[in-house]
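User: what does the whole thing look like in 3D?
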Amino acid sequence: MFSQKLENVRKMTPLIHNITNYVTVNDCANVLLACGGSPIMSDDIDDVYDIATICGGLNINIGTLNRNTIPSMFMAGKRANELNHPVILDPVGVGASKLRTQTAYKLLDEVKFSVIRGNISEIKALAFGSGSTKGVDADVADEVNSENLETTIQFAKEFSKKTGAIIAITGAMDIVADYKYAYVIKNGHTMMSKVTGTGCMLTAMIAAYIVAEKSVGNDMLEAVAAATCAMGLCGEIAHSRLTKRDGNATYRNYIIDEIYNLDGKTLDEGAKYEMQ
Amino acid sequence: MFSQKLENVRKMTPLIHNITNYVTVNDCANVLLACGGSPIMSDDIDDVYDIATICGGLNINIGTLNRNTIPSMFMAGKRANELNHPVILDPVGVGASKLRTQTAYKLLDEVKFSVIRGNISEIKALAFGSGSTKGVDADVADEVNSENLETTIQFAKEFSKKTGAIIAITGAMDIVADYKYAYVIKNGHTMMSKVTGTGCMLTAMIAAYIVAEKSVGNDMLEAVAAATCAMGLCGEIAHSRLTKRDGNATYRNYIIDEIYNLDGKTLDEGAKYEMQ
Amino acid sequence: MFSQKLENVRKMTPLIHNITNYVTVNDCANVLLACGGSPIMSDDIDDVYDIATICGGLNINIGTLNRNTIPSMFMAGKRANELNHPVILDPVGVGASKLRTQTAYKLLDEVKFSVIRGNISEIKALAFGSGSTKGVDADVADEVNSENLETTIQFAKEFSKKTGAIIAITGAMDIVADYKYAYVIKNGHTMMSKVTGTGCMLTAMIAAYIVAEKSVGNDMLEAVAAATCAMGLCGEIAHSRLTKRDGNATYRNYIIDEIYNLDGKTLDEGAKYEMQ
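Assistant: Here's the predicted 3D structure for the full assembly of 828 residues, as structure tokens:
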């Protein structure tokens, strides 16, 4: 039940260490508070070891990576691994620059991730060193649709097998897969792509869900799927609140508001997914 | 009268130099504009001397401190001291890492602060090198309540005596104390803790209040108390605007909106405090 | 027709590389999405060459410049120049510190800008090495009004001639000029100055407009004027939505919402300008 995953977060208030970009960091912090977690941002090489130690999990987002924060990602990642804390990767813009691509590869080599979340172009770039990333958005050519769904699920499962991480590919349709099972999720609204950082926010929320799950259960895949459905569902409900005059700024606020108000019953009833 | 403190800010438009974290910086800038001040953010070692010079006061917030910005905090702090400009410290997450704790200690040693504002765990960590900071939030074990209120007031006064700074401990109950007098403030709403950065925003607003106060009067303690009441009161009024569908994102906006609209009469009538 | 400029942006989804300040970056990203562009933020010296290469244009904003990002501004600017991509400069706070002033001068020397946008104090500081910048806001003494309008237009045209860039001076009245023609624009609302980053947001939006214009037409001046009118008009319409309880935070959201909803017809009908 997805509702249990949601309620775990609210019960446990998981403390999440974020090394993230400065574009969407405020929204990530508010989303973590909204879903029941507690955020701390820390990216200095002299700070991250201690912060990784006191937190329950780590969110690494490479959206505005730089020569100061990259070594911090490795140090924090390794420390979280030592402590067996979940670590999640959001490979923003991987494929768009050598630095992003090489950093992401090296992170995959040296840090064990529980989850990797990105759009289809990013996940392909990560898996194949190719993919046609258009900046930080997925390329239309990569879009997951009914025709390539089976192939994409298979790809996600294989990439999960290879990395040991749950793979969350989000877009019009979301795929959340481990090496064996995949959730295909159809929650969400196209207008979410007009709000900067809905991906980053989801990654932060997944971090809260898996840290909470880890201490009470073992179904990490279901926890990731629950968070992904929750984000999409909140996007749908928030969209239904919009009046003709509202645009992407109000939409951003309403999405976070809905995450704040979401309860287990609404999530279970609104979740649109199947397993494959 | 708190109203005079508020009106001073609107009259004088104090220019505030902020070396602050990138999580809540936008909200701090908008809060400074909302209350009648003018913000400038500058944290590079080659920039802060000049900026500290042209501003009326300095806000140092260590929320995302790093090896580049730490030396800037010292340089700007010393320059502001030379010019006799008020300097305020927000020791975000002190106690959560050695870097935060040691930086805060060293700042207390080398920079004279007019005000230090934090939650009770942060202020304890600063005073005793202990306290059980839970990330950036106060630990429940440290909570200020009616039973430990007297002790906490005494502690705040002593810490004020030791540091020479006005101490603002904020939470469910706020204490604003110098070595002699303390305001106990009961404005605010618990939901404010679900909005990232309400503490940072208050610190920025206090900076505006003390810079404005400095040029017209001498009651710095009352100015800090006025700003603290103002933030809590705006949290209360903003909360009364929320509908069932609203959450922490809309609440954030409404809090800033209320700061923008707050007038002296509303502040005087709504302020809930006693002096001890 | 301004409407065509607006529609070009929506049709072409220009990808804009931003090296910008961390205060207003989230709003810039959402404004770029709102107007029909696509933002990517990247400021590390190892990242910017690649990102500048894949984007259609570059936005350099020195609001929180630092020793890491300054070299990135030069590298990205030169790369964009090589590729003949438009580059826009927002000289935030130039005149307020030696670092800002010298960096801006050096940028003018080494990078060819298509557009420079700032308030009157910033543009004067840039042109004369003087001007009385008050932090990041224009000094009242510099205000453009009916008495000094002719002189200011002349100044803008001359500065355009000298730099080769279109000059956009924004404030109560906006002047958008090349060496030959000037638009005097009277859209906008005074309350926009109470929202942090409306200038930064406009600069980002101008970037989207000129990148889109470049690939279909040649009237770059009209494209800059269209974006400037659009921002002012959205400020007017957004202001008309405000209730008594709303303040600068809600206003910020409504401004971005209006940019999201703006269509060509509304822009053409609402634009208030004359050419000189």
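In plain terms: The CA atoms of residues 27 and 201 of chain A lie 7 Å apart. Residues 2-275 of chain A form a domain with the UDP-N-acetylmuramoyl-L-alanine:D-glutamate ligase fold (CATH 3.40.1190.20).
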